[in-house]
Amino acid sequence: MKTTPNEMEGNVTSDPAAWGKLQAGFEGALELDVAEDREAFLYRTLAGSPELLREVREMLRAHESAGPLEIEKRLLSEDGGSEPTLAGRTIGVYWLERLIGRGGMGEVYLAERREHQFRQQVALKLLRPGWHGPDSLARFRLERQILAKLNHPLIAPLLDGGVTEDGRPYLILQYVKGQPINEYCDRKDVAVERRLALFCEVARAVEYAHRNLVVHRDLKPSNILVTEEGQIRLLDFGIAKLLDPSPEEMGAPATRADSRMMTPEYAAPEQIRGEPVTTATDVHALGVLLYELLTGQRPFASGDWKRTALEKRITEEDPVPPSRAMGPSRPAKMLRGDLDAIVLKALRKEPENRYPSAGQMALDVERHLAGEPVQVRGPSFGYRFGKLVRRNKIASTLTAVCVLLLAGLAITASYQSRRVARERDLARAEQQKAARVVGLLVEMLAAGNPMNEPQGKELTLGEFLRRTERMVVESRSLDATVQARLKHLLGEAYLARSQFGQARAMLEDALRQTRSVYGEDAEATAAVLHDLARLAAATDSGERAIPLLRQSLERNRRLLGDEHEKVAGCLRDLGRALPVSDESRTLLERALSIERAHSPRPNPGLAYSLSALGRYHLLARNLEPAERFFSDALSMLNRLYPEGHPAGLDVASNLATVYFLQGRFGKAAELNASLIELKSKLVGPESVDVAIGFGNLGTALASKGDHRKGEDAVRRGLALLVKLLGSEHAQVANATRNLAAIRYLQGSYPEARALIEQAMAIQRRWGGDVVALWGMEKHLGAVMIRTGQRAEGLRRLRTAVAKLKSLQPGGHSLIADTQARLGFALLESGAASEAELLFRDALVLRRASLPVNHPQIAEAECGLGWAFAIQGRSREAEALLARNLPVFRSWGLADPVTVRQLEKQLSELRGPP
């Protein structure tokens, strides 16, 4: 009688022990190159399991071809083949809904965390039955180690982990609902420019992994998903490799079979040959990915090729350039030149001849998108001039005329053969240039003389800058180099004063003129480009600013070297623009190291780097190091500059924020009030810094309990931000949220709801900071509860807690704030057990970053006390409430309704007087 697959003796799809034998047999046979040796080994190992022997032979035959095995077809079919799944079972607190992926040694389920009415969708990955031998366990532990050290918004994070009852380890990962990047682009008919932008995001995430000494080794579209919102997520580090010789890595299996764990169509030549894997291996895979995104096919398509033939093509043949591989419906012309060169550079056979990093490859793609010369094309004048003309089509005709005039002048000059005459002419030209600059300065200073100008005595700095701008722009006597430099200085001045429109106009004009005078790769050009990147960081979302800052950093490194002070400034500005992460901290610490190496004595660059690290720790809620860095920076700046210098004011503003977060609200309000006055005198009363200062003052006053003055200050700051930045800006969303919070505390719930919904709409349109958006959801849920929509309010608060935890698995102050708000809402309904867990979690987060006497710690302690009271633990409840309620009540941001409820609870616990 013929057996079905499920009836086989030792069938690998049903017998866990058989999986271990199958793995050992296959991997052991691969270690042997001679066919006779393989057969002898298999007979010794699997003589008692004929079906397993047949399966391993089939696997070895398939190893030489690109076609799937029958066993793979069963395992990778939609229903999972005949191997049973764990769908419907519970592992720990996770209920397994359905199998969403299976392959190699692992399987992945869509799961839901179910704990005390807490719901969160996750992906649960665990070893398959029979695969938890020493090698598989070591590799699984290595994946856990790799994921734990990666904290990047584009890499699906590790949330939790554990071991099943039968000894299989599992990982809890963020569940990503999306499409492979190639399918997403094709189904939505994404334009080439957007495909390139998505690719750059992938490359930057890979670069981050490389900086953390992790090589992915299996980059392909199915491991790179795009959500419906267009956000990239990099998945599956199951066969990734750590580059440092850590004990866990050294304990992982390092067999020939391990080196063959790859997807052949995306593999690099060194992977095919079984040679050491480096970051260049991932660069090759990025080249294959970009090729596929641009052409719709891979450079070495498998088709009906045998695996050996495919591997021969990858290791020996050069790929067809993407522009020649385009389908008839794709615009091949767009790929010729830059993109052909970028892709072919990444696909070079020799690892050392590829891009040195994923970041360098991304930088070239970003330069192509910006219309700038790419590094892979080389420095030829014709190529760079063509780029310049395409970027400046309107100016190209004038440029051509200038070239002709310069050519004529060059011919004329060639007849001036006497060296003395040339030197005399040059000296005269320099004297004339200096005289013109002095003349311009005389005009500028004369504008401030009341004898010449009726308003000269009261001439403001803003009016002085505007008059200077007119003189510089309209002057026909100024040398082009001097005029370009003055325009750059004016742009910097406008940027410092938050006059972003004027700053952009001056800097873009300066850039055109500087490129014309000095060329693309000059230090002066790099300086103007960096200020334009700083302008983008001040006015645009990180999606636009960060690539520009990365380009500026690479350009300055190339021009000046890694240890230059200007490179330190670029590192500092990029680190400040990035979200809080290991990368941002590393950049800022590197900037400080460079500054200290140049001069350990007080200097502005060193102070700025200290301040930037203080800001990082402030955002990370590490308040003690934040105060230390800010205090050191302020002390240094006060020694270098007089009181009221802008650099010192910026540091003092951040120090005021630290005071606020430490609960020193009076000191924070006092410092913010003085800063507003000083900044108004320095840069004028209408600047973004002054507007933010009003917002900080308002929040500090409200926290002290002065809601009316706090509201006035926040409204002034909000109006100024709208005037300077427009109504659609993240800063406007933040200020609107703060105003909503104050109106909530005043009991104006309908207005508070309208304001918070307005803030959320602005934040959604602005994009970028998803954490801030879910923090606003906390306010909306709270106000809905106060207006009678309790069920919907609770749902929103629960969702906000779950989302914030998935976005910030390491913890965040907003998580604790939202948990506390949800906890009090539950206590109002008598749900004490769930509320107790929320307040305990909030306490852990708050105690890690706040001083012991902070009102927010008292708030969570009060919540625990109320929960204990409901549970009948009266003595503990009374002690907690009696100790913490006075501190919580004194906090101006305490919900008045909650305070009254806690007072009533304490009174009932104490009983009649």
Question: Can you walk me through this structure?
Answer:
The protein has 913 residues and is α+β, with helices and mostly antiparallel strands. The protein is 64% helix and 6% strand. Among the domains are: 72 residues, no CATH class; 91 residues, Phosphorylase Kinase, domain 1 (2-Layer Sandwich), CATH 3.30.200.20; 183 residues, Orthogonal Bundle (Transferase(Phosphotransferase), domain 1); 105 residues, no CATH class; 103 residues, Alpha Horseshoe (Serine Threonine Protein Phosphatase 5, Tetratricopeptide repeat). The protein has a six-stranded antiparallel β-sheet with strand order 1-2-3-4-6-5. The N terminus is likely disordered.
What's the mean pLDDT score? Answer: 78
Based on CA inertia axes, which overall geometry fits?
flat
Q: Structural class of the helices, strands and pairings?
A: alpha+beta
Largest sheet: 6 strands, antiparallel
Keywords:
Phosphorylase Kinase, domain 1; six-stranded antiparallel beta sheet; about 65% helix; about 5% strand; about 900 residues; alpha+beta
What is the element layout, followed by pairings?
Elements: H1 16-30, H2 35-46, H3 50-63, H4 70-76, E1 90-91, E2 94-103, E3 106-115, E4 118-127, H5 134-149, E5 158-163, E6 169-174, E7 178-180, H6 181-187, H7 192-211, E8 214-215, E9 224-227, E10 232-234, E11 241-242, H8 247-251, H9 256-259, H10 269-272, H11 279-295, H12 307-316, H13 338-346, H14 358-369, H15 381-391, H16 393-414, H17 419-446, H18 461-474, H19 480-496, H20 500-518, H21 523-539, H22 542-560, H23 565-577, H24 582-598, H25 604-619, H26 623-640, H27 646-661, H28 665-683, H29 688-704, H30 707-725, H31 730-745, H32 749-766, H33 770-786, H34 790-807, H35 813-828, H36 832-847, H37 855-870, H38 874-890, H39 896-910
